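Re: your question from the hallway

Yes, I did run it. Sequences:
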Amino acid sequence: MQIGMMGLGRMGANMVRRLMRDGHECVVYDINSASVAGMVKDGAIGAASLEEFVAKLAKPRCAWLMLPAAITGRIVDQVAALMEPGDIVIDGGNSYYHDAVDQAAKLAVKGISFVDVGTSGGVWGLERGYCLMIGGPDEAVKHLDTVFATLAPGADPGSNPPKDAGTAPYGYLHCGPSGAGHFVKMVHNGIEYGVMAAYAEGINILKSANAGKRDRTADAETSPLENPQYYQFDIDLPAVTEVWRHGSVIGSWLLDLTAGALKGDPTLAQYGGRVSDSGEGRWTLKAAIDTGVPAPVLSSALFDRFSSQGESQFADKLLSAMRYAFGGHVEKPKTGA
Amino acid sequence: MQIGMMGLGRMGANMVRRLMRDGHECVVYDINSASVAGMVKDGAIGAASLEEFVAKLAKPRCAWLMLPAAITGRIVDQVAALMEPGDIVIDGGNSYYHDAVDQAAKLAVKGISFVDVGTSGGVWGLERGYCLMIGGPDEAVKHLDTVFATLAPGADPGSNPPKDAGTAPYGYLHCGPSGAGHFVKMVHNGIEYGVMAAYAEGINILKSANAGKRDRTADAETSPLENPQYYQFDIDLPAVTEVWRHGSVIGSWLLDLTAGALKGDPTLAQYGGRVSDSGEGRWTLKAAIDTGVPAPVLSSALFDRFSSQGESQFADKLLSAMRYAFGGHVEKPKTGA
Amino acid sequence: MQIGMMGLGRMGANMVRRLMRDGHECVVYDINSASVAGMVKDGAIGAASLEEFVAKLAKPRCAWLMLPAAITGRIVDQVAALMEPGDIVIDGGNSYYHDAVDQAAKLAVKGISFVDVGTSGGVWGLERGYCLMIGGPDEAVKHLDTVFATLAPGADPGSNPPKDAGTAPYGYLHCGPSGAGHFVKMVHNGIEYGVMAAYAEGINILKSANAGKRDRTADAETSPLENPQYYQFDIDLPAVTEVWRHGSVIGSWLLDLTAGALKGDPTLAQYGGRVSDSGEGRWTLKAAIDTGVPAPVLSSALFDRFSSQGESQFADKLLSAMRYAFGGHVEKPKTGA
Amino acid sequence: MQIGMMGLGRMGANMVRRLMRDGHECVVYDINSASVAGMVKDGAIGAASLEEFVAKLAKPRCAWLMLPAAITGRIVDQVAALMEPGDIVIDGGNSYYHDAVDQAAKLAVKGISFVDVGTSGGVWGLERGYCLMIGGPDEAVKHLDTVFATLAPGADPGSNPPKDAGTAPYGYLHCGPSGAGHFVKMVHNGIEYGVMAAYAEGINILKSANAGKRDRTADAETSPLENPQYYQFDIDLPAVTEVWRHGSVIGSWLLDLTAGALKGDPTLAQYGGRVSDSGEGRWTLKAAIDTGVPAPVLSSALFDRFSSQGESQFADKLLSAMRYAFGGHVEKPKTGA
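Structure:
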């Protein structure tokens, strides 16, 4: 079927490729005209403006947006303004599900369906397929079924999902009304933060398994290492993460990627350790807070990212100021870590 | 080759089966004679006592122990007392790596090698193979190579690990001197706690996505739900965990198992939510503390287990007592959850 | 001066008493007419309806509301509807500061000032005075200065705050425009949660200092206590919290109250450990998340309260289900704690 | 009475001064002979060596040690070697209570009493008195009663503690057998970390209350600030911490110190935010882990200190590496914070 794709960044471009490969017709638009030209070369129908983009879509128009969360809302409004009853806007970005709930209500008044699709799979989706978490009205979601089926990974090789298992074994799922897709994707990413942090913390502990070999100052500001004999291991991090991939309880795709990264450079020298967060982790926490659900692991993972961005510095200065005030403790200078 | 196995619980028995399947000769012992008899029926050589167990082993004797951490130390001593220089004791249980370091030193004096093998794979190991994290002297570890190769899953089908990749791609790894195996397994389990908790918290948030549909008391002791319109989703937990298995970033074996459990019963009614911890999570935290490595996610996961066992109750009573003291706040009675 | 007080619960009634004691005239209203009657007996001017309440106020009317957060917004609207330009509505409850920002904007259109006053001091405020954190337009706040001065504790005995120190040493502070008062009070309560939890966790650890005397099961589901000889202390909790009140770094009013509660009953048998939270802790976390500020301690304190309310149970069931799935681990039954 | 003091750092020197002020005779020793000379000028009896120090003590000798935890054990051994049955060694430093338990057992064999005294009060103790948490044999503790009474703050002015209230209202407490004093002090400091962090996090949130005024990049790596209108407050941190000191629920000595520090410099420019930890926080956590008591707040406070020392960097690099691997996300460069 025909589908319009607006936003040809990493994700959008690959989705278009995967769709065209499977025979779908794609109308594409991006503010970066070079991105459009690239896609056209690959077989897509290009548009030079938002207006042209909508105009080139066959009715009922299906416009899929893959844009940064910060601008999605505005663009949805612009696209919807050019649409007619029966048309469908799909937001496949990492938008806040609140916006999906609100947008859907607004567009419903005009007879336009709003479908929110949480999309996981990253840069690997082109090859592996994307896991799709979908929210929206039944009819619109059904209309897009072949698009979802193409983008999703499909059933596992050799598996034969029972008829009544629905689409989940194929990698896409209608999760509920508008907003439900982004809600489920939001929680997915919240979990992702937690899982990533679990690996990162554990591997960091492995890395310090040789702490007993290091010299340690013996002053009142330094906690002594009680039993250095138990910290004499030089752990081969690439090898350990590799072995965990084979038969261990913590095998996962994130572990596969971690092992690969450490194999490339066990010191990860190219990274500074400044970890971005792109919204979903925050929103997941807010949902937990709203509904009174404890989420200590997910919040710890999020807050570590904030700290990695330098945001705990003033709090830490306060701690040093208190320590100085009650105990005369003077901060130790930073040593080469 | 021949290998002795002592402790025929869930793990030990399956490891014997996997070893025998691959042609190894197994001498087995357990305080439960029925367990021994069962293994003998399957082809193992049984022993009726510790002494007989050691006596039936060919030199150099290789005695593998799969026992609860609490008793392993004592049994290692008993086995070692019956052994001779050149023999090897292998501890495949979830023992504290400190004990491995100490035991190895003690046994080395007598010329006996101590090999600690962290073993992951659970009840699935018989079929999938076990991921093995090994610590100990080079020679002893080399001597046991075929045993490790049998127990481990082996290389991924179709993969062809390069010669210099070592044994990790086959699912077993010599991690360092005695203690290194249990150290790496300990951290593995610490990570496992964190990963499990990340899923559990996220799914718990999904479950509360319909909180806006529930009635809510409007009193000074209850925080109002600000925007009930955003919490109107009835999420199908088995379907969502299933769809995440296909192409999402958080795909993992633990997710596979979670989806399976939820498919069996979405309410998990058979469980009470009292989560045990068996030592490694605690030890991982202690290692983090000793070496000054932050582990907020792993500790949050551990502490939630403690809380699930009722251990935060007195702290919570203190909070209620303080609230009463400063604000006259009276505890709300427990309502049917 | 004259001030109207609506909401004669614990807080409101005591504030009226403190105001009248200092010579202020109080017009009072509550949906519970008995509360009004009680205050009238103490010298207040009673009102039988919202309309009468507003009618009895001299211009410019100053109506102070002490109501549950869940209903404050609605009542502010009703009061404001009866008011005229130049009048002032004061919200002294634990409302969300977002509402204050929004209400202030709405009321400003009608020429009515909205002053939000975060009020700390609990049931002790009548005697000790209330700490007041104030947001609102300069003129309105200035107009209410004598009211704030009466409600606040005043300067420490013997202290002589310098002229340029402002009102903070007297226990009240104009923190900024409308919303700033509730914002500062919100964070105050967020901190309160963290401080309370720090004491509660520590005292809970003291309570378990005799863990080495207890029997402990030695099975694979129970982590062994390595060194029972270090956990042989029966700590006298009332005495320890009392001694900490004298010269220690952690002396505080909350510690005073805690010591008092433990002296009354060291087992706190009257409490079940179900700790309510009334909004500010949640909002503090949301502010931290919005602004990217790490708040691991404050969030841990909040999530423990959620857990105490039973909200981690499904997550814990999931953990048990995973443990059963990979390791065949069966939950231990609950034993008498 | 006579008491020997070894270790004339910040704490030891002030304790000697406070003791001499109250008429006690002090024999003093320090490896730094200038420190000894200074104390002698103030009226103490100096010693030039450990041997001379012990020799100058009257029997039963009472030697109080105020030394860094890392060297205390060694010095206790040296002092005890010069002592006789009936003598008393007092460790007033921040030693691990495990050591106290072990030392006490060792010294008991020689008839020497070991008394461990947790000492809180910091540099203010000279003036305010020290809060003393004492472990050791009854007789030895009783023998030292006047020393403890002098060092402690004494009863609150105007208070008249009842006879059966024991010594706690005077600021010192015999908490149990050897080790109990350091155990209680350890938990005291664990709590201290949590309380400090609660204030620091909250104040950091206040500081960011103007986040809505700052520019914010709109890209896929930056989470948008949804409602900038709610983050327009420029909070006066010195004034707010000052007002909280008067009548609020979170009034405390640490808050007094914090307000003082912020009054001195609201930006705390002299600090870098590298917060040391000196052992007790770590040990408190280990005790919580050993005994299965949840301590999420205390651990979060500890781990933040580790992070402030740069110890989360490798974990954070791993997170960035994973994000790059699955999503092609490139780390944002550090901007001037």
